[in-house]
Specification:
This protein has six helices and no strands. It has 121 residues and is mainly alpha-helical.
Length: 121
């Protein structure tokens, strides 16, 4: 893994952790598109890697199936998982300081942006 990819994976993990802590969304909504658009993963590799980083206890059986088929990147999953963990703390602290209406609107806008982008790409 090159230092540039490691830094990119760290940023993805941190961003997903903050979004998870802030908006209560699953990290996959950020991680899968990031792995596809920024790192060139195909859909199966992005999904398998995301499941692998979220394994305990969320997706062990699914992650193992992706792993058996060669559709996981263990190094990427490990780095993203570490920074996802750290980012979750920051996101939760921020969310607890925001007005619930503002938080709901941020969540709604985020979901619209992601869905439109994925639909058009």
């Amino acid at each position: 893994m090159t230092p540039l990819f490691a830094a990119g994976y760290m940023l993805v993990g941190l961003s997903a952790g903050v979004a998870s802590g802030l908006l209560g969304i699953g990290g996959a909504i950020l991680i899968i598109p990031a792995l596809i658009y920024f790192f060139g993963f195909d859909q199966k590799l992005a999904q398998g890697t995301t499941l692998m980083l979220m394994v305990p206890p969320i997706g062990l059986m699914a992650a193992l199936e992706y792993y058996k088929q060669g559709n996981t990147n263990i190094k990427a999953a490990a780095v993203i998982a570490l920074f996802f963990f750290i980012g979750g703390l920051f996101g939760a602290k921020l969310a607890l300081r925001l007005d619930p209406l503002i938080l709901r609107r941020i969540f709604a806008v985020f979901l619209m942006i992601v869905s439109i982008r994925m639909f058009l790409k």
